[in-house]
Design a protein that fits this description.
By secondary structure, the protein is mainly beta. The protein has 2 domains: 101 residues, Immunoglobulin-like (Sandwich), CATH 2.60.40; 93 residues, Sandwich (Immunoglobulin-like), CATH 2.60.40.10. It is 5% helix and 50% strand. The chain contains 1 helix and 17 strands. It has a 5-stranded mixed β-sheet, with no helix packed on it. A 4-stranded antiparallel β-sheet has the order 1-3-7-5, with no helix packed on it. It is flat, with a radius of gyration of 27 Å.
Length: 229
C-alpha cells in the first residue's frame, strides 16, 4: 500500500508545465503607432524536458517567434510577438496558440490586447453602388472625437477615375467626402487614404473604400433535354 502511494505521489511530482508570467498582455497605443512589440516570459516549472512544437497566431496581423523549442526543468524562455495597430479605435484582442509535447498540458493560449484611442469617426467606411444603378454621388462623414482639433488635409483615391471631393463642415471638427464612381456599367472600386495633421510626427491616415458591385449572376436556363437529367 505504501509503495503504491509513493509511486502515485512520484507521478504527481512529474507534472511538467510551461508556466507563463502573464499569458495576457495589454497595451495602450499612442497616436500614429503602427505596431506593438510584446514579450511573453515563461519557465519550465516541471521535472522533465518540454518541447514547444508549434506557435500559431490566430490573425495575419500578428507574428510570434521563439528563441528555441526545447526547455529543460527550471529553464526559462521568451516568446516575442508583434501586432500591427489598425487605424480604427477601440479594444483589439488577438490570440497566439502554443502546442507542446507536455502530456499534461499540450495546448496553451496567449492573448494580446490593444486599447486604441478613437480619434476620428469615418462613417460609413464602405459604400457601394448597384450594377447599372444610378451614377449618383454619395457622402462619407468624418467627425473628430479627440479633444484636440484634427484637420483633414487631403484624400487620396487609389483609382484616379473616381471623383472625390473633400469639404470642411467645421474646421478641425467635422468634414465630408463626396465620391462619385466613373461608371456603374461595370465593377470598379477604389480605396481612400484620408490624411490628417495629427500628430505632428507621423500624422494619422484613415481609410475608407467604395465599389460598384459586379453584374449579378443569372444561371442559364436549361433546355428541354437538359431538364431530363
Amino acid at each position: 500500500m505504501k509503495q503504491t502511494l509513493l509511486l502515485l505521489f512520484s507521478c504527481l511530482l512529474l507534472n511538467a508545465q510551461i508556466k507563463f508570467d502573464s499569458p495576457t498582455l495589454e497595451f495602450d497605443t499612442k497616436p500614429g503607432q503602427k505596431k506593438v512589440d510584446a514579450k511573453y516570459n515563461f519557465k519550465n516549472v516541471g521535472d522533465y524536458t518540454v518541447t514547444i512544437k508549434k506557435i500559431k497566431p490566430t490573425c495575419g496581423c500578428t507574428t510570434a517567434k521563439l528563441d528555441k523549442k526545447t526547455y529543460k526543468p527550471g529553464e526559462s524562455g521568451t516568446i516575442a510577438a508583434t501586432i500591427n495597430v489598425p487605424d480604427r479605435g477601440g479594444r483589439l484582442a488577438k490570440s497566439i496558440r502554443i502546442t507542446t509535447d507536455d502530456k499534461d498540458k499540450k495546448k496553451i493560449k496567449l492573448t494580446l490586447v490593444l486599447h486604441i484611442p478613437k480619434y476620428v469617426d469615418v462613417s460609413p467606411k464602405y459604400i457601394s453602388w448597384e450594377h447599372k444603378g444610378a451614377k449618383v454621388s454619395k457622402t462619407i462623414s468624418i467627425k473628430v472625437l479627440h479633444k484636440t482639433a484634427i484637420h483633414i488635409k487631403k484624400v487620396h483615391s487609389s483609382n484616379p477615375n473616381w471623383i472625390v471631393k473633400l469639404e470642411t463642415v467645421t474646421k478641425g471638427k467635422e468634414y465630408k467626402i463626396t465620391i462619385t464612381p466613373p461608371t456603374t456599367e461595370k465593377s470598379v472600386r477604389t480605396s481612400l487614404s484620408i490624411e490628417s495633421d495629427f500628430p505632428t510626427v507621423k500624422p494619422l491616415v484613415f481609410s475608407a473604400s467604395a465599389r460598384v458591385k459586379p453584374k449579378p449572376y443569372v444561371p442559364k436556363k436549361k433546355n428541354w433535354f437538359q431538364n431530363l437529367f
